[in-house]
Design a protein that fits this description.
The complex is a heterodimer of chains A (about 300) and B (about 325). In chain A, about 75% of the residues lie in helices and about 0% in strands. Chain A is mainly α and about 300 residues long. Chain A has two domains: about 70 residues, no CATH class; about 220 residues, MetI-like (MetI-like fold). In chain B, helix 14 packs antiparallel against helix 15. The two termini of chain B are about 30 Å apart. Chain B has a single domain, classed as Orthogonal Bundle (MetI-like fold). With about 325 residues, chain B is mainly alpha-helical. The chains are: A mainly alpha (about 300), B mainly alpha (about 325). Chains A and B meet through helix 1, helix 2, helix 5, helix 6 and helix 7 of A and helix 1, helix 3, helix 5, helix 6 and helix 7 of B.
């Protein structure tokens, strides 16, 4: 701990002002612990992948085959997942629900963030604070009353149950993120437009929004990922197999009885993770910056 | 700014009555806040109140309940499984939070160093947090398999220090610790990346000043890094505590509360009693019992946030 701390504390060292760190010491105090972290953080994914690729005789025989490697890779498990289960259907459902919930949340959040940050009315901070507090209400304490509401509204087992409830955790987060983003756009630009006779809506549409595109992308990818990963509402409000989302379906539909088909299960877990991982890899910079930005806000 | 004026020129000469209505500030404020506030009121505030009401009724699935006063809470108070779940939740939150922040801070300090492929490493580190929790939990379920656990294999055959397989999920304490390990694994990236953001806002000149004053490495950490990191730490800590306390997915995916209810958290118990069990009133009571803890955590966050203004020398806006 202290070693790593010293490294950081001695940050000026790299500017060449004061330097006493040798390469072996850096290896021991930085690269080695960092390598351990990376290995531990990634190992479950490696394990998921090779389990997917292993044929059954290899999967349950550690004596003859070293379990850390695949000796005769096979796509049987993947084929089973894609063609013998409703996986493509689950993927499509999850994608549509995530997109619908994201669009709805971004629409609501942009307007709310604009009103709070730019229209500046009395009590606007209080509305902002209330929306921030809404983010602190976890789904675990809402799903039971929401389940009764979903029953009463006749939305049980319908994708609309999820599209309408996901914004409860998406809107607070996106609004918060966008308020921060709008704050960074100079207000003078809007004043200029106002002097030129633009209406408020024109200002929002033609000046503020185009400048806030990176913020919108950040909020969008976050909302999409959060909806993709949501579990408890999807578990409680959806019953029929073909309407389930990927995380719920992989856990509830692929586990049958006590005889776990680990190869197929891990294939399901892997293929449920790949879409978000891909999505993440395209937008990684937005991701890191919005996560850190949101914390700093 | 001429381009702005030109692009707006045509429409702004004679705004119609609807355009003028949309330019009237009070109306515009209401219209802008309506979607967000409406959705949150209907699907968040109302259910929150409804949940408290349900906890005082004997509602079951498919049947409206009657007001029964504190009966649900009284029966929970006599229920050893409920108390076990409270105990588990507190142990789970406390241990997982301490480990997540200890290791997360360490990782953040490592990532703050200058090194090649820094962006790539940072991107990789965040992966466990991106992937759906249930799916990575399934990987852990398989890693914790009693017969084919890779960890057992490692300690039996690669580094032969054990004779038998680990029984990760069969006994109460090993099962709890296994769940905590999985939660820590998933939580480290978020803590590390957030704290890294905090570390990067600390000006290097503060460290230089401390070094000129002869501060040791530990003193620089204790008197520069820690106080400057406090505001971010407070926010991240609140989030982490709230979402660990109400965690559901990991436990549901890996043990479903077993063996013999030994790993139930309050959230999983509320789900089990409320949705498959059909006792919505009782489930709601368990969920409501979590609220006092959450309020306490939020208040801590509020005071943590209040501290940041003077520490960073910002005005109150």
């Amino acid at each position: 701990m202290t070693d790593a701390v010293q490294q950081v504390a001695a940050k000026p060292a790299r500017t060449g002002v004061i330097s006493w760190h040798s390469t072996p010491r850096r290896v021991a105090t930085i690269y080695l612990p960092l390598a351990c972290f990376v290995v531990v953080l990634l190992f479950p994914f490696y394990w998921m992948t090779i389990t997917t690729l292993k044929p059954n005789h290899e999967l349950y025989n550690y004596k003859d085959y070293n379990p850390f490697f695949v000796h005769s890779p096979t796509l049987v498990n993947v084929k089973k997942l894609l063609f013998d289960t409703e996986y493509p259907q689950w993927l499509f459902t999850t994608m549509s629900i995530a997109i619908a919930a994201t669009v709805l949340s971004i629409f609501a959040s942009v307007l709310a963030a604009y009103a709070i940050q730019r229209l500046r009315f009395r009590g606007s901070q209080w509305v902002g604070l209330a929306i921030y507090l809404a983010y602190l209400v976890p789904p675990s304490i809402l799903f039971i009353p929401l389940a009764t509401m979903v029953f009463k509204l006749g939305l049980y087992d319908s994708p609309f149950a999820l599209i309408l409830t996901y914004p409860t955790f998406l809107i607070p987060f996106c609004t918060w993120l966008l308020i921060g983003y709008f704050k960074s756009i100079p207000y003078e630009l809007e004043e200029c437009a106002m002097i030129d006779g633009a209406t408020r809506l024109q200002i929002l549409r033609k000046i503020t929004l185009p400048l806030a595109v990176p913020g919108l992308i950040s909020a969008g990818i976050f909302a999409f990922t959060l909806s993709w990963n949501e579990f408890i509402y999807a578990l409680a409000f959806i019953q029929s197999s073909e309407k389930k989302t990927v995380p719920v379906a992989v856990l509830t539909q692929l586990v049958q009885g006590d005889d776990y088909q680990w190869g197929a299960l891990m294939a399901g877990a892997l293929f449920g993770s790949i879409p978000v991982a891909l999505f993440y890899s395209f937008f990684v910079d937005y991701y890191v910056s919005s996560l850190t930005g949101a914390v700093k806000e | 700014m001429t381009s702005v004026a030109e692009s707006l020129g045509k429409t702004s000469v004679q705004p119609g009555p609807i355009a003028r209505l949309f330019d009237w500030k009070p109306f515009l404020i209401v219209i802008c806040l309506l979607p967000a506030v409406g959705l949150l009121t209907v699907f968040l505030t109302y259910p929150l109140g409804l949940g408290v009401w349900l906890s005082f009724t004997d509602t079951k699935i498919g049947r409206d309940g009657f007001f029964v006063g504190l009966e649900n809470f009284a029966s929970l108070a006599r229920d050893p499984i409920f108390w076990l779940s409270v105990f588990n939740t507190i142990v789970y939150t406390a241990l997982a939070t301490v480990l997540k922040f200890g290791l997360g801070l360490w990782l953040a300090l490592l990532l703050n160093e200058y090194m090649p492929f820094k962006a790539l490493i940072r991107a990789i580190v965040l992966v466990p947090w991106i992937v759906p929790t249930v799916l990575s939990a399934m990987a852990f379920w398989w890693i914790y398999d009693p017969q084919f656990s890779i960890i057992s294999y490692f300690f039996k055959d690669v580094v032969p220090i054990r004779e038998q397989n680990f029984d990760f999920l069969g006994e109460p304490w090993p099962a709890r610790l296994s769940l905590i390990a999985a939660n820590v694994w998933r939580g480290i990236p978020f803590v590390a990346i957030s704290l890294l953001a905090g570390l990067q806002t600390i000006s290097p000149s503060l460290y230089e000043a401390a070094m000129l004053d002869g501060a040791t490495g530990w003193q620089r950490f204790r008197y520069v890094t820690v106080p400057m990191l406090m505001p971010v730490l407070a926010v991240v800590l609140t989030f982490s505590v709230i979402f660990t306390f109400t965690d559901f997915q990991l436990v549901y995916a890996i043990t479903r509360g077993g063996p013999n209810n030994a790993t139930h958290l309050m959230a999983t118990l509320a789900f089990q009693r409320g949705i498959p069990g059909g006792q919505l009133g009782e489930g709601a009571a368990i969920a409501v019992a979590m609220i006092p803890f959450l309020v306490a955590a939020t208040l801590i966050s509020y005071f943590g946030l209040a501290r940041r203004k003077w520490q960073q020398g910002e005005s109150n806006d």
